[in-house]
Design a protein that fits this description.
heterodimer; A: mainly alpha; Non-ribosomal Peptide Synthetase Peptidyl Carrier Protein, Chain A; B: 131 residues; mainly alpha; 63% helix; lipid biosynthesis (chain A); transport (chain A); acyl carrier activity (chain A); electron transport (chain A); mitochondrion (chain A)
Chain lengths: 127, 131
């Protein structure tokens, strides 16, 4: 958790350029506040527990699924007995819930809850 | 202009696998246009998007047993045509409700007669002579 936070922060922090030149040569717009983007709205990454809960809710409310069998590692076709069309339908439901648009190649690979959670968690635009 | 968005490549599918892929593409296109459909026909109080998704999936599954790629292409063409008609508002609300909404478990009760709290005996009596 801490490492994820750290990498998220490292992705956003901009290190100010330090040159050996004199102050006269540095442009006037470089000041201390470039290192912390206080007005950035890109830090609202979803929590992993939130992602897991929402995805499990989607899978449980699918009419063909037995809710008691749903765990975060369950495989849609092997464990829940769904077919490939149901798989696509679940992926579309996930797309709708998190307001994403998953390209076809990625969508074909999402076969289980674990992959879905990982994909959504790593997607920058998930909400 | 509506079908320019979703033109399917005319050449026939070479294999069953390609036809299968096209079916999934069609299903995804249909699911992505569900919000627009609900907006056009004002279906917000009647169905949820997930019920519509299930209906579309059920209709696709009705033809799931077909193995000839050309037949699958033809069915997909008909499906695309239907989807285009719906999204460009060539149909009306009662068409959508009758074809895609009613018949799901949630709404069959709206179609049947109102339950008037009469006894079972009377219900059977009104229905048929032999019970």
């Amino acid at each position: 958790m801490a490492s994820a936070l750290r990498s998220a922060i490292l992705g956003h922090v901009r290190v100010p350029v330090v040159t050996t030149g004199s102050k006269l040569l540095t442009p006037l717009w470089i000041n201390r506040s470039t290192s912390v983007r206080s007005m950035s709205s890109h830090d609202d990454h979803l929590e992993k527990t939130q992602v897991i809960d929402r995805i499990l809710d989607i899978v449980k409310s699918f009419p063909k699924v037995d809710p008691s069998q749903v765990t975060p590692e369950v495989h849609f076709q092997k464990d829940l007995g769904l077919d490939s069309l149901d798989n696509v339908e679940i992926v579309m439901a996930i797309e709708e819930e998190f307001k994403l648009e998953i390209p076809d190649k990625e969508a074909d690979k999402i076969d289980s809850c674990a992959l879905a959670i990982e994909y959504v968690y790593n997607h920058p635009l998930a909400s | 202009m509506a079908f320019a968005m979703r033109v399917k490549v005319p050449p026939n599918s070479a294999t069953l696998e390609e036809a299968r892929h096209r079916t999934f593409d069609f299903f995804r296109a249909a699911c992505r246009s569900i919000p627009a459909i609900m907006d056009i026909y004002n279906l917000y109080d009647i169905v949820t998007p997930s019920q519509l998704r299930s209906t579309i999936a059920a209709q696709i599954r009705k033809n799931a047993h077909i193995t000839n790629p050309k037949v699958i292409d033809m069915l997909l063409f008909k499906g695309m045509e239907e989807l285009s008609n719906i999204t460009e508002h060539a149909k009306q609300r009662h068409h959508i409700i009758g074809q895609y909404v009613v018949g799901n478990k949630g709404l069959v009760q709206d179609v049947a007669n109102k339950d008037e709290n009469i006894s079972n005996f009377l219900k059977n009596f009104y229905k048929t002579n032999y019970f």
